[in-house]
Amino acid sequence: MPIDATQPYDDNNIFAKILRGEIPSNKVYEDDWAYAFEDINPQAEIHILVVPKGRYVSWDDFSAAASDAEIGGFVRAVGEVARMKGLVEPGYRMMANVGAHGGQEVPHLHVHIFGGQPLGPMIARRG
Ligand code: 5GP
């Protein structure tokens, strides 16, 4: 079920539990600002989620309320994960779903990184 991205942060969301180590995840990268792990239901050969360590519901919340240091640290972490996985030369895609129309299901900001294969059209075609 897509979430309402205007709701307050819920400390019981699944990615908060992953960040606290209460639920296992396949870690790819971690630094002071971000944690990256494999998506449980990959949509490409490589499908990684990168989340900020701070309590932000969505890209909207993060871009409005996070500090410059948090934003800088998170953006650099997303780039670092792509480099670590060798995705820059073949290319990759990153995506952050926001709210109902975006299809966001987990109310903690996450950037998807897709790669390891040609990724096809940017978005589902209009019917
Ligand atoms: P959204 O639709 O919110 O942008 O994407 C949520 C993503 O989180 C989905 O791709 C889904 O497969 C992934 N996901 C949901 N629950 C878990 C989980 O418990 N562990 C991991 N690793 N990924 C999850």
User: Which H/E pattern describes the elements?
Assistant: HEEEHHEHE
Q: Which term fits the overall shape?
A: globular
Average pLDDT figure: 97
Bound molecules: guanosine-5'-monophosphate
| Rg computed from alpha carbons, rounded to a whole number of angstroms | 14 Å
Unreliable segments (pLDDT under 50, ≥5 consecutive)?
A: none
CATH class: Alpha Beta
Approximate helicity band: 25-40%
- Strand residue content: 15-25%
Q: Count structural domains.
A: 1
| N-end to C-end Cα span | 22 Å
The CATH architecture category equals 2-Layer Sandwich
CATH topology: HIT family, subunit A
How is the biggest beta sheet arranged?
5 strands, antiparallel
Total number of strands:
5
Counting helices, strands and paired strands, the structural category is alpha+beta
**Looking at this structure, what is the CATH superfamily?**
HIT-like
Q: Helical element count?
A: 4
Q: Strand order, biggest sheet?
A: 1-2-3-5-4
